[in-house]
Design a protein that fits this description.
single chain, 186 residues, alpha+beta, SH3 type barrels, GMP Synthetase, Chain A, domain 3, 2 domains, six-stranded antiparallel beta sheet, three-stranded mixed beta sheet, globular, FSCA_dom_sf, Fe-S_Maturation_MIP18, Probable FeS assembly SUF system protein SufT, FeS_assembly_SufT_put
Length: 186
């Protein structure tokens, strides 16, 4: 049995850029516009506005009277061997705005790897992430990939990131964790 939080009505406190779901098209909400929070996970918000679902980035949480996500408290001198678990932790804070399960538990992340920076910098690495989408035509793919980039680049020791959207092997429910299956009632 899945328990859902009740929707919360909010009033837009200022104009703000959002993305339409599922197309990913940019939209602007106006101050004074009424919305309902349908999902608040991973620092971003899914809002229902006049029959349209939209995604509000966490950095714009003040537009609906909420606090932006807290900054990471990770030492800048992080040892490179401790980086991979932190990347996976960050990826677990990324959500498809229509599905209340993170992209790791959905089985969307196929690979996390690191390589040296082109400039030979020893204190930074390039993160390489291969991920897929639940459907190849998902309009939110670029938005989810951008969120992955933002969150992984916020980690110390990551100087660059490449996120590859791949569709081989194709995603299916068998890639989901048990926790994801339970959360979705499958």
């Amino acid at each position: 049995m899945t328990h859902r939080r009740p929707r919360e009505d909010v009033l837009m406190r200022r104009g703000v850029a959002v993305e339409a779901i599922p197309s990913g098209a940019p939209l602007t909400l106006q101050a004074g516009q009424l919305a309902q929070i349908t999902q608040a996970l991973g620092g971003s918000f899914t809002l229902a506005v006049e029959g349209q679902l939209v995604r509000l980035k966490g950095q714009d949480a003040d537009a609906i009277g909420k606090q932006p996500p807290a900054a990471l408290d990770i030492p800048a001198d992080l040892h490179i061997d401790a980086l991979e678990p932190l990347v996976w932790e960050q990826l677990r804070t990324c959500y498809d705005p229509e599905i209340p399960v993170n992209i790791v538990d959905l089985g969307l992340v196929y690979r996390v790897a690191f390589e040296p920076m082109d400039d030979g910098s020893a204190d930074k690495v390039r993160a390489l992430i291969d991920m897929t989408l639940t459907a190849p035509g998902c309009g939110m793919g670029e938005s989810i990939a951008n969120e992955v980039c933002d969150k992984v680049l916020a980690l110390p020791r990551v100087g660059e990131i490449t996120v590859n959207l791949v569709f081989t092997p194709p995603w299916d429910r068998s890639k989901m964790s048990e926790a994801a299956l339970l959360a979705l009632g499958l």
